[in-house]
Design brief:
The structure is a single chain. By secondary structure, this protein is of the alpha+beta class. The chain is built from 6 helices and 6 strands. Helix 1 runs parallel beside helix 2. The longest helix is centred in the N-terminal third of the chain and has 11 residues.
Length: 219
């Protein structure tokens, strides 16, 4: 359920400590954009993941990659620093613009998704340090998926998030493309095959023109 500012986290982890002898209790809570991060917060306070399975009627289903990623996030501790998130729960009626009667439920457009931008504080070699976790909900199909993408920096992650839904904007893989080390490049240049002209020379990479994202985007 959405409360407060649109796009804000819609879930909360609630931690209660009871002192039965004194007849008192302490209560704390933390807002979270997805279930796995609410679980992460509770596990850090001593909860058992096996006791944190959501239980309610008509829970949406998901696939095994989503379940694996959810478990990894729930058990990640403080590995990730979470920079930002946004939850969309927009319901659009195509008939609204024409002034006609409201459409039936199956004809409405449900744009339900959540993106989370995070910084991996212990990145593994060959992996991007910035991640986007993207939960996409099929409301009418009662299902959802959770996927992970990798980015070189926060600006690139924000640029992707601002273009969600565009056909030329797929979630990129986490892995970094392998690069050629200076030593390997020098060895290729001085190899007998190269000297004899047995193999064509590699074309020089075209110049890359970059623009400072901070100067072109307002967040």
């Amino acid at each position: 359920m959405t409360y407060g500012i649109p796009g804000s986290d819609q879930l909360a982890g609630i931690h209660v400590q009871r002192d039965l002898g004194a007849g008192t209790f302490r209560l704390d809570y933390e807002r979270a954009p997805i279930v796995a991060l609410a679980q992460n917060w509770l596990i850090a306070r001593g909860a058992d993941l096996d006791q944190l399975t959501p239980q309610a009627e008509w829970l949406p289903t998901t696939d095994q990659p989503s379940r694996d990623l959810e478990q990894r996030l729930a058990l990640a501790g403080d590995r990730y620093w979470f920079a930002n998130s946004y939850t969309s729960d927009v319901v659009l009626d195509p008939a609204h613009a024409s002034g006609g009667p409201p459409s039936a439920a199956e004809d409405l457009v449900y744009d339900f998704h959540t993106w989370i931008i995070a910084q991996d504080q212990h990145p593994e070699p060959g992996l991007h340090p910035v991640r986007v976790f993207f939960e996409d909900v099929d409301y009418l199909g009662r299902s959802y998926t959770l996927r992970e993408g990798g980015f070189p920096d926060l600006d690139a992650a924000y640029d992707w998030a601002m273009r969600i839904g565009e056909p030329d904007n797929p979630l990129p893989p986490v892995e970094v493309a392998p690069s050629t080390s200076p030593r390997t490049a020098a060895a290729r240049a001085t190899s007998p095959a190269s000297a004899a002209g047995a193999a064509p020379a590699e074309a020089a990479a075209p110049p890359v023109i970059t623009t400072d994202p901070a100067a072109t985007r307002t967040r």
